[in-house]
## 1
Amino acid sequence: MKFSWKTISMSPAVGRCRGQFADRHVGTTALAPRLASLVALSLLLVPSSGEAVEILAAAQVGEPFGVATIEIPLAAPVSVGTQPPLRVSDAQRRVFYPVGQEVRVKVIPPSERPVPEPGRGRLLRRVGKLIREITSDDQETEETVARRVSFLFQGSAPMLITVSDATGVIGEYELRPESNDTPHAQLLGQWWSDYTAAAKTRIDLGDYPPWVENYLVAMLSGRLHLPLPSWFETESKTEDALVSTLKLIAGAEEATEAMFRRTASGHQVPPAMSRQVSIPPAPRWTQPIPTGNAPGDVNDTTFMEPIATRVPPECFYIRYGSFENYLWFRDLSEEYGGDLSRMATLRGFRSQGTKAIESQLHLHMNELSRLLGPTVIEDQAIIGRDLFLNEGATLGVLFHVKNAFLFRSSLQNDRNNRANSDEAIQLEETTIAGKTVSFLHSADNRVRSYMVEDGNYIFVTNSETLVKRFVQVGKDGQSLAATSEFQLARRLMPLERQDSIFTYFSPQMLQGLVSPEYLIELRRRTGAKSDITLVQLAKLAAAAEGTPTPSIDQLIHLGYLPNNFSQRADASGIVEVGEDLIDTRRGGRGTFLPIADVELRNVTAEESDWYSQIAASYSSRFPHMDPIMAGVQRKTMFAGDDRNAKIERLAIHAEIAPWSPAQYGKYAQQLGPPTRVAMQFAPDDIVAAQAHVVSEQLGPPTHLFAAIKDSNPPNPDDFDGLIKTFRALKQLPGYIGAWPLPGMIDRLPLGLGRGTPVRPGMTRLLGGIYRYTGGGFSVLSFYPDLLTASLPFLASVEVEDAAQLRGRIGNLRGSQLEGWVTNQLYQRSATSSRAGADFLGMLSRQLRVPPAEALTATQAIFNTDLQCTLGGQYEFLPQSDQWTSTVWQGNAIPTNPPLDYVHPIMHWFRGGQVTLTQYDDRLVVDAVIDAARQ
């Protein structure tokens, strides 16, 4: 292929660059095969401190976009991932969709290099490198020799391009586009490879839904007729039906992401599969195996709370028992911004589900409510059909009141004030199931609140269906309290426990989640949420390219949305209401119409086939749902002599009963029988775990146990590869063991399990592992002194409770392990914090969102706020043209956590322990957690 080379002189004021292109085997020679694919290639010799630097550039005109690339070779190869990506900009705003990428070459391993001449140790060094290559799986296979930035552009006139990176401007270069179809296709293919690879990297590192990245890949693929990358599959062909269903119900991000990719890429359902068919049948549910503790008279409800007699059996049930318990739980939630998941970790985006539900139901707490609540509320509970808080749940709050008139008057006064303060909100009375119902609502379902009264019970809900069922249960008595499963639950967890929170998920409720009415509508609303987000992103992309206010039809016509966009089986769609986007059937995103209120009349053949596979899997492999119950008790303590350091001990008891281990697979069948025998550990073991298991390799039921001393353990990344894992374990001060002596190690071939005696009862095995045997124990450790010091405390003791699994973590505050845990959590949070800042920068570079509008645009895209996972606030620095956080050091995140850094979980966690017991007919989990409170 023939090249057209150009030499362009620039003064240092116009252009500058760093580094000298080196003519070595990883430099020019390695780049030559790739350069042979560039037809329009320019060699820019730019003076900078008296040195000449080679800049490789090419630009080809095309429609709808031209494509260009600029490469800056490095003076010497460097490790992959160490170079900041290049960026480009131009004053005429002709540059679109840029991507910076490293140019990498393969590192030739020692086994493929020529054998050196003997002498001066060359051959021995070669042998040493070969050994390291064989024994290590973490050798670098590539290295970076240059940096490349590629981009699309419009027009054919010359362009003055500014190249920069995170450290500042590198130079300005003039590109003169040429017109040639073949090089254009080659450059476009290279740009596409870089672009999709960079998108995948951001997706992997990000801690937010990757909707922007997925949209851009899908949209550009369609407009430029480029193939979707292999990782952009819309649905897994091999995933288990039960697993995929659980992900959909749980709202797992990978499930919603798969639907988003399918919608964004416009994957058409074949016409034959779009025809309307009848609703497929639900799974063939069977009755659970009766338990020996089953109640005799299902009409006996004297040992249960009265409020349970007004709950429909197909609802979940979360009871506080008293207004004081509700206040405790609400205050705990408010300490973490209304999102209890923030107790464990900060995510890249803030969950708004709880606040959205409170606003939708218009149930707000104020100081007057705190004062009057205990005098007017006897009992209260949250009930519903699902907990899809982030999209729009089907639930309500049920009150058992002491003074119905006072409580109703207070609620009605608040509802009147809300309606009078907003013209978009209406308050009216309607009749449902023969009852007069107060209905506060808005067209987008942002407010949707029914209030119905029946005797001393007042129910506030967002679902008309739940109103009907509440009234019906009051008439026929067919309540949750009347079911044998709930009566069993109340005998296993009686009222005398005085739980601060009691939660019960009935079989009927769990089966309802897998019904065709629920799953098919859940799948449809996931698509509706994707549609709303796609319109928002398409508008941003169109505005970036010069079409500021297109309609949805125009977006489809121009290729920003797929041709079959929003063509749905239920004839619903997306409409614009002012600046808001509304689903015509479900309302606004985040407050969709409750699924229980959506009538499913018919489905497509594709939906029927999809659901039928799920129903068949449940019928054959999971034919009944086991009820789940849990209770939380709390006890206030104080830390040492400090009466201001309040510690709450939370005792959590959970059961699945009745329970059928057979349908939970092999994991439920590998535990030994429940036992009151437990291992006693050394007092300085800060983490300890044990299991009573059954195994063909171990023989009879055996206790396996492990413990870790207070220490600084190895980095988790060190446990990668056989050799690295072995080295990391040698740094871990702890031990593992078994009782009674399983004999598995003794049966190893060639006497490997016997080792060399070093002292009575202790041998040294291959690899430097020490083994102690005695008293029925077999204990292994890399540290003989540690093992010797721990042995006097090791014992099998009788305890009060029977269990198969036991675990304990001590108080980490002030321990060596605290620093290690903090550092690991900090590193993960730092990665997410960087990804959030990069996302905001991506909005500016890919969709040209002005920095001042980036946070607002992000909130519109995700329907929630982006947050820094290190606890800071994102801010834009004009001087460096990038986003940072207020907790960073300038443009960089500190490598080590600052002295005042405390991860959310370390704020409150002060130790805990857990046990699991599997009986023939029920599964029991008990946990005790000490939590520091503000």
## 2
Amino acid sequence: MEHAEMTHRESLPIDSPRTTIDLDGDWEFVTDPDAMGEDAEWSEPNAAWPDRSRSITVPHSWQEHDDLTEYTGNAWYRRTVDIPAVDDRDVFLRFGAVDYEATVWVNGTRVGTNRGGYLPFEFEISDALSPGQNHVAVAVSDPEDLSEIPHGKQGDPWYTRVSGIWQSVSLDLRPRTRVTVAKITPDLMTDTAHVELEVALGDVDPAGLEYVVEARHDGDVVTSTYGPVTADASDVADVDLDTALSFDDPTYWSPDNPVLYDLEVRLVCNDEVLDRYADTFGLRSFSVEDGEFRLNGETITMRGVLEQGYYPQTNYRPPHEDTFEQEIRIAKELGFNLIRKHIKPAHPAFLAEADRQGMLVWEEPANSTRFTERSRTELVDQLHGLIARDYNRPSVVVWSLYNEEWGIGHEDGEETLWTDEEKQTFLADLYRSIRERDVTRVVCDNSGWAHVATDINDFHRYFVSPDRADQWVGDLDHICAHPQDNYATTEFDDGDAPVVISELGTWGLGDVSALRDHYGGDPNWFGHEFLTNPIKRAEGFDDRFTESDLAEVFGDMDSLENAWQWRQFVSIKHLIEEIRTRPTIDGYVLTELSDIEWEFNGILDYLRNEKVFHDDFAAVNGAVSVVAEPASHVGWSGDSLPVTLTVVNDSQETLFGTLTWSVGEQSGSKAVSIPAHEVTETTILDLAYPPANRGVEATTLSVALEGADRDVRTCEPIFAAERDAVVAPDARVYATGGLGSRLAGGGVDVTHDLSGDVDVAFTDTVTAEADQFAKQGGALVHVPTTDGEMNTNAPFSYHDIPRRESWLETTSLFYQDSDLLAGICEPTRLGWEFEDLYPYAVATDLDRSVDRVHVGYVEGWLTNWSSPLVVRGYGNGSMAALTFRVGDAYGDHPVATLLCNRLVDRLSG
């Protein structure tokens, strides 16, 4: 098969000896659950198919049909095609991609079989053809067990399966003397493009055969070369040729100037053109030097986004002709310069659009689940085919081999890559072989997890801010100081790889009603049988919305979606900014461009519509950004408010401008110049928390970089309270330890004796005495221990929230509808006002008949309804769970202080 010949299908000149007949459109389709089709000779032109056969449109995946969403196994396709006279040309039946195993017959003759769900394949079918009408039949097998098959995120525990002919089908008529490969390797040191040609001689005499190679731009020939096609022996069928195109004044391909050259290769014999081969290419280099990424020799920082190529109803298949154009254009508008096509080969039309618009692409194969001989072989074959298909695409700059050890140690029961020397050696050998096969790109061995031999030291880190802001900062500091901790072994690598945070993100619920309108009801993936984790399972979420207090708090789903999306933006803004202010980190890849089925962590929703923060995101993610980092977003009026201002310049030029800032009545400015690819930091020490008339009041710290041709802005909320305005509650409070001392220091009447004259009791351990106090009419508040733990000897059950890196926690939302928080935070949504107070556990198993939920908590599709602040009727009294970490914060933290005081007032009243 002539794999490389299929790399790019551009319009050829009218007089081209090549012809393509499009076979997309109506095909007959039937499932074959008992695998009887081959024995029943369904491949024969006049075979009778079962009555359940139907007409479908190719390309498609059979899961697009509601009755086949969960179907795996065997299916058949067939159609007839009228083939014109082929003269002296060879005819190829070409498939863009079929998942997973395809066997093909033409006029009842078996012409070939292919395994692999993502890459093109073809069969030479000239001998099987007849004049006029011809019959094509395709049997497809996609087994239920994918563990040894490269499948990416299909099926358990992720997304909808994809089976069948999901990319285009065509008949390609090609001259027998033809170019089969044209592999272009730019050399920017000499401004040349090295061209490796493979030529099938056919029946022509090679003595009179010549090649002509031309590169055009805007229709004009800018450089060319030619020479004889020579063969070492008369019986040689194929010839390999090396030549080079020299450029006098080339324009290099880059995201800012994605100049493409049109390549044409002609084979000429006695002045007759026997073949024309066309492709496009760009002159660009991409490498790692001195621990940095270099594009065309210049430093570049990755501002990337993950993209998985799933679409509502059509799955892998783009729903519109302009789908990829829109995706890449929007990604560029949002400030991204790279897209990581996640865990499956990119659609070739996507790469063509990335070439045209100037979007860098990090590409990776689909991985399997288990590490076996078969899975290794199929992965390597897929990588080789992927490189052959996309070698000439300048947009592709990174290959990954594995993602998070999927297929090389991730499976339960398998030894991990961290300790398995056999896997380490295999991966190091594979890394070296891919680097030798493609010298124009860099290679990541195992994205996000243990590295062995790699050009990129990347990390997958899922934190959420402000809930775990300090932990995120600490984690990044550790990564910068100890990047070698991410290596399973340094035996194969020099360790001088750029550091990239190649997955991070936070969830924000998209427009569910729009999804239902699009699907005409609940999407089929709402209730996939394999979605056993309730966070992922959307089925029944309407009931969970009304059975919890969410309906009372938000009123409708639109309001919940709005609040959740703004929470998503607040989080990812801080996550990205902390990365960008660290020059030792060379890039990031945000998860992800759009929601995918149940996973709603996209900048866009699943329909590729904008979320509420769309217009604000580019300022965070653009080539130039301003970052404002208050030492704390919360403080007492008049206290010192240190703020670090940082200007990040990822552009290719030095920036000059004026940095301005203001908060309340305070303001200032400073002239700055920021060299290209540098981070400039200015620390402002003379700010103070602004005055507040009552409660905790929010103001905005506004910062702008003005001048030159840029106007970049950012803002941060600042929460302040007047110490003198915070009045201690008129109640007798039982408390011990540090919290007791802090309450007493704040003017609260504190006792260490749990007697009858106590109005409210705080305790981190619900003893028998404390339990009896509540049952007999007292108000008991269960608070965390000094390390944030919630002891379980209480009427409440508790759901632990991860303290550090956790994909799970990024799915969560804290919300509120309580006068205890009036004036403290925005209606419904918690944010930076609770900085340093977010809990490590929440009270669960709530009961609306006895519980007053002041602050709620949910995860994913409205599951694990819980609370960090809930009051329950208990005997003749009450029991409250207050899991916010107030014990060490009362008195110093205005929100902790005011919240505790209000709670005591409420309970004692």
## 3
Amino acid sequence: MSDIFLGLGGNGENQSLALSRANRHGLIAGATGTGKTVTLQGLAESFSANGVPVFVADVKGDLSGIAMPGSPTFKHADKLEGRAKELGMEDYTYSDNPVVFWDLFGEQGHPIRTTITEMGPLLLARLLDLNDTQEGVLQIVFKHADENGLLLLDFGDLQSLLQWAHENSKELSGVYGNVSKQSVGAIQRQLLSFEAQGADHFFGEPALEIDDFLMTDENGRGHVNVLAADTLMRSPKLYATFLLWLLAELFETLPEVGDPEKPKLVFFFDEAHLLFDDAPKALQEKIEQVVRLIRSKGVGVFFVTQNPIDIPEEVAGQLGNRVQHALRAFTKRDQRAIKAAAETFRINDDLDTEEVITELKVGEALVSTLDEEGAPTVVQRTLIKPPRSRLGPLTKKERAIIQSISPFEGKYDETVDRQSAEEVLAQKTKDAVETAEEVAEKGEAEVAKRPRKTKSMWEKAISRGTKVAAGGMAGAAAAAVLGKKSRSNPMKSGIKSAAGSIATDLAGPIAGRFVRNLIGGLMR
């Protein structure tokens, strides 16, 4: 199959989405209760059936039902089956989908984590609502960590380094420029506030391996990765920044493929306006850049929002596949949105698009997609197909059963706390106190004769390196530093263990500046 059936147009023709054009991005818009979630669910299960993995945020908690087949006993089953019959879907049967549940807080799915280093100072500054001066200080803290081999993995690492920066602000100022205690203190306060919102769950290890979002099941169906976002939505800035980070990770990790026969992954941004609310112009420009460039990586991005004017024009201009549900003209802003939405479609002489947008029934939408030549099709009033999976949430028991058979069961569920900036700085403080006591007792000259209390990064690397063959060690170390695929646990056994540990030590000064996500890198 080369396309996905969307529904039946008013002209009697099937409206479809070409798989080869699904990486040209899309928009699903409409007022509350007009059918956006049903459209999203139907699209997601169709992509999965065609072997395309999907990532979708479950904002309201009702998308989890995509993991289970629908049922004739469902209270709206007669409407779904009636619509399928009206659309001529003779093969319509209820079916489930291969779903993997994720949750930043680890409560309703596998935890998703990244490290402080990989998030980078730009996105952290946005998360923490820092001003330009404070962001500059955060950049300096990151640079100091890079140059001194201090791994920033979790909140504890960043807090420890900020505390050190507060106590050594004069030393930092002498090297990097002005670092005031007031600015460091402001960052510390914002970090504590943000931690209280639960953001600390997102930072640490094992960090997400992005390839785990790109898998298919034994039947060739793409995994539907469902992010439980109902709790996450209470921290909208964390939600938006997480989604932007994920896009950047995908861009950084995936190879160039141009326009493939079908996407490698389709990404649904629900409540998409949160990505752009209060975002500085520089950040909006980078969002536009990532959305434009990620197409060549075979990733399709669909923005889901109530009002199409929530999407900046520079981004909206890249959304070639559009499903517009009903809009209501209650305010002048609503009227502008209706006019703007109508003007984005290729004109249909038999359809007053602006008027029809306000008349669409639940389950109807205006549809225009890109054809095989990449040109937008004429807009058609379309009755959208019903999904085959359950409409509505899973029970806790059902979710637990699906979670227990997940291919990633046990991989991400337990936190790994390896040596990083927090432990290094704590050890240095302990060493300094003990050395001061020794100097007072024995004298500086005598103390200077003994070896240093804590091995340097290079001494530790050499010590570990003697346990493995040099050639194998070098190759594994390079993979651990640059490849990201062993981030979840680089301490397993043999060569991988030693090389992974060396990579840990080298990651700060050597790889930190290069492995940071695309957005942070572009904005530094």
## 4
Amino acid sequence: MPVNQFPLTSPNDHRQYQYLVLDNALRVLLVSDPQASQAAASMAVNVGHFDDPAQRLGMAHFLEHMLFLGTEKYPDPAEYHAFINQHGGSNNAWTGTEHTNFFFTINADVFDESLDRFSQFFIAPAFNRELVDRERQAIESEYSLKLKDDVRRMYQVHKETVNPAHPFSKFSVGNLDTLGGDQDELREELLQFYQTHYSANLMTLCLVSPEPLTALDSMARQYFGAIKNTGLKKRYPEVPLYTDNELGTWVQAIPLKEQKRLTLTFPLPGIDRFYRHKPLTFLSHLLGNESEGSLQALLKEKGWVNQLSAGGGVNGYNFKDYNISFQLTDRGLGKLDDIIRLTFEYLEMIKSEGLEEWRYRERASLLKLAFRYQEQIKAIDLASHLSINMHHYGVEDLIFGDYRMDGLDIAECESLLSQMSLDNMRVQLVCQEVDTNRQANWYHTPYASRPLEEQELSRWRPKGDTNGLRLPEPNPFIVEDAQARPDKSLSPVPTVVAEATGYRLWHKKDDEFNVPKGHLFLSLDSEQASQDPRNAALTRLYVEMLLDYLTEYTYPAEVAGLNYNIYPHQGGLTLHLSGFTGNQETLLALLISKARERNFTQERFNVIKRQLLRSWYNAAQAKPISQLFTSLTVTLQRRSYEPLRMAEMLEECTLEDLHEHVRAFYEKIYLEGLVYGDWLTQEAKALGHRLSHILSLVSTPSGESARELVNLTGKGTMLRELTISHQDSAIIVYYQSPSATPEKMALFALMNHTMSSTFFHELRTEQQLGYMVGTGYLPLNRHPGMIFYIQSPSAGPLQLLEAIDEFIADFSYAVMQITKEQWESTKTGLINQVMEHDANLKTRGQRYWASIGNKDYGFNQRELVVAEIEKLTRADLIKFMMQRMRTKHCDRLVLFSTGEQHRHLQALSSDKMITDLRTFKLHSDKFHL
């Protein structure tokens, strides 16, 4: 029977698809998207770290790196990255357990040229001998970067406590130890690994482009037909992930960040075969429920957990870990037996009462709606996702497989539930207050493992004491069907539909994406929000308390595809609602009425305050470059504060202080909002009047809160050192535009675009300064800016700054060398990035909302910036660099931290060190937004 060449698609999907198998057995999915401004490609190879030779752990990951560094046809190791970047694209890759994925996006007019380069990775890679040593240093940097990452540290503990004969037990990343030895020998092993594991029949390719399918078919055959098919068969060992020795164990480990997490793991067989009915999706829908009477609601009410999640866990060719995880409170740590027993009580309830068709249909109808009104995603994300799906689904289900729920299969559910038992369980406790007797390899995590004891198991057995637990009621928010309304928009951009003193509401009816969804943004500005660290901390606490308080009431709405988020900003807080419009206003009314109640209890106050403090104290454990990024905005924005400073202030605050802060917060409010999507003008106007009325009851009108940014003009090179406990050093160098004009935005954006790939190649690939190396265009409070950043295991801050300064000094000459054609193509690449078509309603809504925040009321800043980019010459860019960046005394901010292994090196110092941040911010000139 011939293969169905066309996958099932959503009625809302305008793209065309075609599946084909080339003569070399390479499976290909072609996607023609006439609306796309960019093209993308993704190759997924059925090879991962499970395939690593025992004596060469990290080999699959190392090979992934090496494929980027030149091919026989294109030997220059920097050429591929530079070509992609020059033509407005981006590229990346990852290595997983059983798959490696390579993907990129680029301007559509050079797609065939990029495919010629990309396909050579899989036809004739160079494996340049000189680059072997350099790239294993990059692997070492990547490994070093995550040494203090708790996710990696716990992953390694997991690997050491499974069956050692299972490939999951292998160390996946690699480092200088595992990839050490003679460079020539390593290159030979690399070649052998490539020839043994890379074969066309194990690869899946997805091409996305505005070109028609016939043109894409021709490209696929022309560029990828030469990949060798050696007829490889995948054979992972048929050994269980856990033997009797590893099942029924209690594992406890110490994290670096303060956290308390209990996880119950139920080992299941591989689950790919269940995708048509998705029994685990259904069971997670019941287990993870957060409404009144649910397991989470009861445990939160008792003050034992902050959060429950059901359904995560590793999975692969013959295994699936089904995890039920609890984020514990301090009190919950002493109630582990009760938490585990109640979990089994709830599981029994699901077995006896939960396997009902209407419950299954609730979950299935949500997926059905999501598929019917499937929102488009970026070409690069689509290509990557579909190339991986090709390893899991048949052709017909390549798109639909993720959404398919064909009906409740009670036998499947009962079979899976029977394996969620005391006899088929592992328990993990991650907490700083546990005893350990071992240390994990590679990441040095202290842990202990022991068999579960019979008396524990007997304490956890369900007794029929359900103690207030009950399964959820029918969800009133779920709609079986939803229709997008055909009304056209009255304006090409948002317009003001309601305005009064201290209040403004914008609206635009969407008539492009054809989904019955909307996005509501409401920003509340209050002078009380963050005028000092104490107020900022209390505003953050208020947001967290509110989100916690609302969960139980709003959970059914969230399940039904009505989402919301509340987040603080420099001037106050923002409420963002998204999802199906049918019940959006009902949810908004619920949120407003509950927010006004403010029934915060002392117990939840204690728990949430502790949780917030923990997250702020844990910020000190983040990787150095992440801490510097946080500190950059804190150093420059008048109303941003260091996490530890806010923690210090919050420690002393009481529930009464919070209530007083909330009262003062609402005393004077400025509200700005945007209603975008399937909302009609009269509906937006009516909403505006209701919001205005609600505001008048609680507040008096106010002006917008000030957004102030430190002005670096005339300050020279300012330095600020952070003390961070990590072996790596890190640095950020920030250049700020003195004005926020389209011309300056164009200059900074083009400078970053022109420099980024060369900077990456020179400082990461050539000089091997670190794994996290890059540049970025960074506007703050509308002011354009540019950053250079490095986190390095091999160099201290002084050496890093010298390397950045040397690069900048030399770069003018590099700009002079490029041809007129290359210059124009670089500009076109950037213009295409700036003008990239909004993929979906969400992206468009976020762009409109950002425009309002930036006071771009014509919603045409992109077009103005592009007009400036088109005018810019190489001479303009060189002149700009000479004036603004070439001297070590130019106006800029340098943030840095010195790694533990670099303390002996010459220090980076200056007479312009920022030692008192508060005084620096107070006395500096400011830009006002």
